[in-house]
Amino acid sequence: MKSFWMKALSAWLGLSLALTAGAWADSRTDATSPQALSRAVYHELVMLPQLSIFDDLSFTINAGEVTLTGAVRNAVLKDEAANAVKHLAGVSHVDNEIQILPASFNDDHLRREMVRALFRNSQLFRYSLGAVPSIRIIVNNGHVTLRGVVGNQGDKNVAGIRANGVPGVFSVQNNLRVEN
Question: Which of 25, 55, 99, 147 is the most interior residue, by most CB within 10 Å?
């Protein structure tokens, strides 16, 4: 009986190692596909430790050349984004066009007020949850841009109305996309 269990365990371990090796080989050949490169770049960007809801990073990929765009609050995050992407397999060049937002006490105050206005609302609170919140708040010299994805047109409208109601905001551009 003991030898039966040993043989069963050996067979199970051998099968699991073969499946793991096959999956590893498939993932290595898939790593050069455009979709895999796009997922890898996205993963590297959202894993940056200083990335917050007040930063917006986006990218395009064209034949191995990655162009980083968006707006961030500090130069360190801009450099970290480029460094995180340039080592990926399939990336031949990184063009870092990320804008650094000016340091401003007023903008910092508006950021805090925007978070309160948007996420204290029961309809929008769910968008503040998770490791990567789906709404980004970009404040540049008193002008606010909302970016990200919401579940429906009503949530997009409520976010725009709440953002426009924050005192001290010069303008609000609601670039939120509605999820399909």
Answer: 55
Query: What is the rounded distance in angstroms from the CA atom of residue 156 to the CA atom of residue 161?
Result: 9
State the fold for domain 105-178: Histidine-containing Protein; Chain: A; (3.30.1340)
Residue 91 and residue 60 in contact, taking contact as beta carbons nearer than 8 Å: no
What are residue 72's DSSP bridge partners? 100
Residue pointed to by tokens 């910092």? 108
Q: Cα separation of 170 and 139, whole Å?
A: 10
Is the pTM value of this prediction over 0.90?
no
> Architecture of 34-100 per CATH?
2-Layer Sandwich (3.30)
Between 104-108, 135-139, 140-144, 176-180, the lowest mean confidence (pLDDT) is in: 176-180
- Phi, psi for residue 70 in degrees, rounded to 5: 125, -160
Q: Which helix (H) or strand (E) holds 36?
A: helix 34-46
